[in-house]
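Name: Phosphodiesterase
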Amino acid sequence: MRLVQITDAHLHADPQGRSRAGLPWRQFRTVIESVIAERPDVVVVSGDVSQDATSASYSLAKQTLSTLPCPWFWLPGNHDQPELMKAVHPLHDDVDLEHWHMVLLDTRVEGREEGELGPQRLAAFAECLEQDSRRTLVVLHHPPVEVGSAWMDRIGLQDREAFWQVLSAYPQVKLVLFGHAHQAFARYRVLDHSHVGVYGCPATADQFLAGAENFALDQAARPGYRIVDLRDGDWLTWIERVDI
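Structure predicted for Phosphodiesterase:
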C-alpha cells in the first residue's frame, strides 16, 4: 500500500494570495499533480491546509484533492478551523489501511502556535491503540520530537513526553508522521520494546530553514511530499521534491 503525506498548504481564499516566498495555491496544485503520478492508495494531509481559516480556502483544497485517484484524509493544524474543514470534508480519528491502522491526532490548541494533546485526547489515543493491535501509523501536525530548530522546537508538541509514554505501551506503533516544521526530517525514537520511525515532510507552501535558531526560510528548497510504502512487515519512505 502506498501512502503519500502532504502538509502545510497555507491556502488563502484568494487563489492569487501570496505567501512569504510564493503562491501557495499554485504550488499546492503542482504538488498534487505530481502525487497523482505516484499512484497512491491513500493520501493524508497533516494540517495547516489554510492560512486564513476561510471556508473558501478549504473549498479550494477539496477541489484539488478530489482529483486524486484514491481516498484522502486531513487533520487540522494551528492555522486551521476544524468546523470549517468538517463542513467541506470529514475529519477522521482513524483509518483502516488493510494490514495497517492509521491514527490521526488533533494537536491544535485554539489561538496558539504550539500544539498539545492534553489528558482527554491522550486517553482517547490510548483507547484507540488498545482496540487495534495491527501495525500502526500515527499522523499529527505538531512535531513530537525536537527537530533541531530552536524556534520551531518551542512551538512543537508541548506534551511530547506524555505522547511517547502512551506509545511505549503499544509496540504496534511503527511510524509517526508530522507537519508544521516545513522541512524533511527522519529519526528513530527508541522505546522499551520498539523502534519508532519519526518523519517530517516538506510543505507544499514555503520551506523553513533546518537548524535555524530563529525563523528563516530555506529559499533553495522546493516544495515536496513524503511517500510511505507500507508492507506486511515493514515500510519504505522517502521525500520527493517538485519543480515550481
